[in-house]
């Protein structure tokens, strides 16, 4: 069996930036175990699979170790493949996912994703988490992830966290964020529980970052920079119960898998 596969750098204007994702368009679903093995073989933070259904697309995402309910950069990558390689001609794409309906539209060089906003539930900072991060938190919020706010961009850039200790947190991942020097905010994202020690650019984390910084900075439109080694810029627009998350993408590999 041969499967088409693309590798796309999401939230990147050129190759080798942003967050790489694998995208596998399918005619019919494969067994879950096989999709998980393909994601493990790709060894990227996410592999996306989608199947067309009644004018929309059912979309699923797998890390090397587990299926996840929401992934921003691999959604961006999937939309990029449809627009650039599979002759999708409409201006917007509707994806159905475990997190509900996700819309992606094309605006110039940007792909704009419309996701549900995360909830900001104030939480107490566990002792193990502060030790793991290595920097004191100003605030901590919890939803699918922890949002761990610190004082300065330099603290975020210079983090050297204890990744195994972070895995004690009973959440998908830990977002560490601070005000930006040249952007509205900066962030890094660690998800050892999902098999990803540090994710280069995490679209889904911005469903939590956007409402947090929108309230803190009193503005709806924001520009964030995820300051991982690869790095990526994310354009955000807070719409109360929804968040628009935009960026660019480029294809770096196109081929076939033989199973």
Automatic annotation (TrEMBL):
Active site: 46
Pfam families with a match to the protein in the record: PhzC-PhzF (PF02567)
Gene Ontology, cellular component aspect: cytoplasm
Protein name as it appears in the record: Isomerase
GO terms for MF: isomerase activity
Key word Isomerase present: yes
Gene3D superfamilies given in the database record: Diaminopimelate Epimerase, Chain A, domain 1 (3.10.310.10)
Family: Belongs to the PhzF family.
Keywords: Isomerase
SUPFAM superfamilies in UniProt: Diaminopimelate epimerase-like
InterPro entries documented for this protein: Phenazine_PhzF-like (IPR003719)
NCBIfam families xrefs: PhzF_family (TIGR00654)
Presence of keyword Isomerase: yes
């Amino acid at each position: 069996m041969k499967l088409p596969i693309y590798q796309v750098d999401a939230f990147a204007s050129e190759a080798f930036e942003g967050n790489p994702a694998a995208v596998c368009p399918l005619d019919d679903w494969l067994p879950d175990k096989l999709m998980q093995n393909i994601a493990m073989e790709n060894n990227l933070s996410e592999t996306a699979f989608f199947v067309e259904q009644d004018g929309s697309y059912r979309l699923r995402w797998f890390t090397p170790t587990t299926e996840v309910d929401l992934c921003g950069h691999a959604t961006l990558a999937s939309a990029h493949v449809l627009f650039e390689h599979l002759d999708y001609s409409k201006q917007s794409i509707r994806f159905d996912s475990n997190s509900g309906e996700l819309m992606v539209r094309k605006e110039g060089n940007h792909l704009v994703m419309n996701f549900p906003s995360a909830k900001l539930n104030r939480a107490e900072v566990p002792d193990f988490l502060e030790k793991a991060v290595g920097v004191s938190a100003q605030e901590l919020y919890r939803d699918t992830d922890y949002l761990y706010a610190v004082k300065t961009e330099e603290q975020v850039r210079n983090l050297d966290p204890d990744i195994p200790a972070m895995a004690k947190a009973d959440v998908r991942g830990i977002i560490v964020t601070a005000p930006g020097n040249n952007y509205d905010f900066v962030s890094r994202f660690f998800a050892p529980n999902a098999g990803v020690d540090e994710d280069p650019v995490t679209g889904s984390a911005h469903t939590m970052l956007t409402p947090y910084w929108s309230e803190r900075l009193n503005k709806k439109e924001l520009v964030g920079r995820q300051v991982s080694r690869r790095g990526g810029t994310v354009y955000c627009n807070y719409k109360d119960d929804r968040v628009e998350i935009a960026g660019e993408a480029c294809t770096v590999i196109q081929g076939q898998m033989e199973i």
